[in-house]
Design brief:
Strand content: 25-35%
Structural class: alpha/beta
Strand order of the largest sheet: 3-2-1-4-5
Distance between the termini: 40 Å
Largest sheet: 5 strands, mixed
Helix content: 25-40%
Low-confidence stretches: none
């Protein structure tokens, strides 16, 4: 079920962190870049680059995010990790980010927050390849 975009905005840094993956075609085959975007500052974190988009790669990248100093020093306020999909991993994700974070799934919100980052990267690559 695709949810509506929530009618709330992040009111502090790292309140909502949107996690996503970009498939990048390389000469050696596809690579998958895992990123997260803070919905308040729109700061993007590059987490991992893997050769697949398996459950293990997703969980590894979420673990990497949970270990970032910025995340660990903000634990008093907690954070909500927002993903577009992978609801089947909810319990395992919560094990990784508990007790400082919780996970929700909302495709439209994730796309709204990550779209400017993706557009910026695309614009950069297009300029570079001219």
């Amino acid at each position: 079920m695709d949810e509506v975009i929530p009618d709330f905005e992040a009111t502090r840094p790292l309140e909502y962190i949107c996690f996503f993956c970009l498939k990048i075609d390389t000469l050696e085959g596809p690579a998958f870049a895992y990123l997260a975007v803070d919905a308040y500052s729109m700061f993007a974190y590059q987490l991992e680059v893997e050769g697949d988009d398996s459950d293990l790669s997703i969980l590894k990248s979420i673990y990497t995010l949970s270990e970032l100093p910025e995340i660990n020093t903000n634990y008093n306020s907690g954070y909500t990790l927002v993903l577009a999909d992978h609801e089947e991993l909810a319990d395992r994700i919560n094990e990784i980010i508990h007790p400082f974070g919780k996970v929700i799934f909302n495709r439209k919100y994730t796309e709204m927050i990550t779209r400017p980052v993706i557009d910026s990267m695309t614009e950069y690559l297009n300029k570079r390849n001219k």
